[in-house]
Amino acid sequence: MPEAPTKPGRFFWKVFLGNATLLGLVLGACGWLLLREFEQLHNRELTENLRAQAAAVIPFIRDKLTPSNAPELDRLAKELGGSEADGVRVTLISVDGLVLGDSEADPAIMESHDDRQEIQQALAEGWGQKTRWSQTVSRELRYVAVRIGSVDDPQGVVRVAMAVRTIGARADSVERLVWTVALVILVAAILLALGLARLWSNPIRRITTIAHRLSRGDLSARAPVTGSDEVAILAKSLNDMREHLSTQLDTIDRQKRTLEALLTQLHEGVVVVGPDARIVLLNPAAARLLNVASHDSNTNPLASGATVEGCITQHEIQMMLLPESGSPMSTDPAKRGNEDPSTVPETERPPQESRLELRRNGDVISVLARAWDIALPSFESSSRRTGRSFGRLLVLTDITELAKTIQMKSDFVANASHELRTPLSAIRASVETLLTMNLAEEHQAADRFVRMVDRHSAHLEEMVADLLDLSRVETAPGTFSLRSVQLSSVIAGVRSRRAESLTAKNLSWQSDIADDAAAVTGNDQLLSLILDNLVDNAIKFTEPGGRVAVSSKRDGQAVAIEVADTGCGIPAADQERVFERFFQVERSRSGTGSESAERRGTGLGLAIVRHAAAAMQGTVRLASAPGKGTCVTVTLPVGQ
C-alpha cells in the first residue's frame, strides 16, 4: 500500500480553516455578549447608585427648595458633589425648573431646566434618567433625577449626574481583560485546530487512497482500522464494502443459477423472444411441449440465438411470438426505417390466448398458450427514450387433464340428458295413449299405463334427487360442518326410512355397532346420505329372504362402517367402474315390467357415496363376488 502524502491536502486546509473560523466566530460572539452583558449590568448598577445618591440628598433639602434658600442650597450642592471633573455632579431644581444649586456651575447663570427630559419624567413618574451633552459643563453626562414630594404636591427635583467618559474608563479595563483572554484562547484554539486537522486528515487521506484502488478493481487493498471513532467506522465500512464487492459476483451467479433452476422445474413452458425475433429464453417444459431439441449447451436457443421459425415448428406458436407489422416490437428497417421515432407506438399489443392441440410422442395434448409484449431492459436504448423495445413472452400450460375433466362434464350432461329422456319418453307415450283410450271399456289397459307412468315418474324423481345430492356434495363440500356424530341415531333413521322396503322383500336387518366405534367425525346429513344410498342398493339387489347388515368397528384412528348384503354381487370387471356416474352393472334399459327394470337404479348412488365420504375426509372401498353379495366399507375419522 503506498504511503499517504505528507503535504497537507485540501481536506486538511478545509478542516483547519473551518475549525479556526468557527472558533474565532464563537470566541468573538462570546466576548461581545460578555461585554454587552457587563455594560448593561454596569449601567443598571450606576443608575441605581446615582438614584440612591439623589435619594440620600432629599432629607437635607426637603421644604427648602425655594428661591430664598438658593445660596444655602448651592453651597450644599457643592459640598455634596465635589469639585473633580470626573466626580458626581449634584443639581437642585425647583418645581418650576429654576436651578437653585449646582455642584459644578453657578445657578444664577443657568437657564431654566423645566424642559429637560429627566426633570419632566421625574415630576411625572417619581424619577427619570437621560444621557446627553451638557452645555453647562461641556461634556456628556448621565443624569438621574428624583422628585421631592408627591405627584400631586411636588416640591422640586434632585438631579445627580456622572460623566460618560468616567463610566467608560471604568469599563475599559474590563473590556481589555476580556479581549486579552479571548485572544489567548483564540491562539490556543488555532493551534488545537491545526493539530486536529492533521490528526483527522491523515487517516482520511489513507482511506481515500484505498477507495481509489478499490474503484479500479484492486480488491486486495484493505484500510487500516484503529480505534472506534467515525474514521475507524469508515475504514471498517470500506473493508466491508470490499468484502461485499468480492462476493457480489458470486451472488449474481447464484441468483442466475436459481432463476435457471426455477425455470427448469417450472411445469409451465416459458418462451421469451427479443425484438429481433430471436429466442432469448426457452425452458425445458416449453422444449418438451413444443418438441424442441434437447435443452443442452449446444442446442440451447439462448446460446445459439435461434430464430423462432428455425426453432419452433408449430405455426400457431410462431404467429403468437413473431412481431406484427408496425407493432412496437418490429425492428425491420424496411418497416421502420422511414418512421419518425417520436411516432413509434409505445403501447403493447393486446394479450393473445389460444387453446392448441399438440402432438408429443404420438399422443395429442391440449395446451393453453398465452402471449403478451414485455419490455426487455437489455434492449432499451440508453441514448434515446422516445420509444421502447418490446419482446414477446409465451406461457404454455398443459391442460390435458383439465380438458379430460371438461369432457367428463360434457359426457355427464349427455348421460344425464339420456337418462332423463328415457323415463320422460315413457311417461309421454303412456299419457298420449291414455288420452286416446276409452277408460270405461279399456280400464285394465289404462291401469297398466297409469302404473307405468307412476313407476317412471318415481324413477325420474329419484334421479333428480340423486343429481341434486351429487351436485351438492361435489361442488360445495366445504359447506358441511364436521362434528361428532353418533352412529346409532343415524342408522336408526335409515332403518326407519327403509322399513317398508325391507318388509316388502322379506329381508332381515342386522345392526352391530362396536363400543369403541360408536361415533365418527363427520356430518349427520352426509352420513345419512351415504347410508341411505348403500342400504337402498343392498335392498334393490338382494333377493327376498336375504339379509342386509350395517356394522361399525375400530380401524386404527378411524371407524369403518360396513353395509353388507347377500345379493347378486358385482363382477370383478365392473367393480372399478361402479363409482362412475350413471354406470350400472345391469345395462338393460328396456323390458318394462321386467325384474331387471324394477330394480334398476339411477346409477348415481355410489358416486354420491364417494363424494360425500371425501367431504368428510373419509374413503370408500368395495368388496363383492357374484352370487355371494356385496360389502361397501366407508372409513371416517374417530369422533371426539
pLDDT averaged residue by residue: 76
Side-by-side strand order of the widest sheet = 2-1-5-4-3
Category from helices, strands and their pairing: alpha+beta
What fraction of the residues are assigned to beta strands by DSSP? 15-25%
Q: Between the first and last Cα atoms, what is the distance in angstroms? A: 77 Å
Helix percent band: 40-55%
Tell me the radius of gyration.
58 Å
Number of strands: 17
Oligomer: single chain
Shape by Cα distribution: elongated
Largest sheet report: 5 strands, antiparallel
Low-confidence stretches: 1-5, 295-299, 325-346, 380-387, 587-599
Count helical runs.
17
3D structure, described in words:
The chain starts with 9 loop residues before the first helix and ends with a strand. Residues 1-5, 295-299, 325-346, 380-387 and 587-599 have low confidence and may be disordered. The chain has 17 helices and 17 strands. 48% of the residues lie in helices and 20% in strands. Helix 13 (487-497) packs across helix 15. It has 640 residues and is an alpha+beta fold. The protein has helices spanning 10-61, 70-81, 117-125, 164-215, 230-265, 284-290, 301-304, 308-311, 315-321, 333-336, 400-436, 443-475, 487-497, 499-504, 524-540, 595-599, 605-615; strands at residues 88-94, 99-102, 127-134, 139-149, 154-163, 269-273, 279-282, 352-360, 363-375, 390-398, 483-486, 508-513, 519-522, 547-555, 558-565, 619-625, 629-637. The strands form four sheets. It has a five-stranded antiparallel β-sheet with strand order 2-1-5-4-3, with helices on both faces. A five-stranded antiparallel β-sheet has the order 7-6-10-9-8, with helices on both faces.
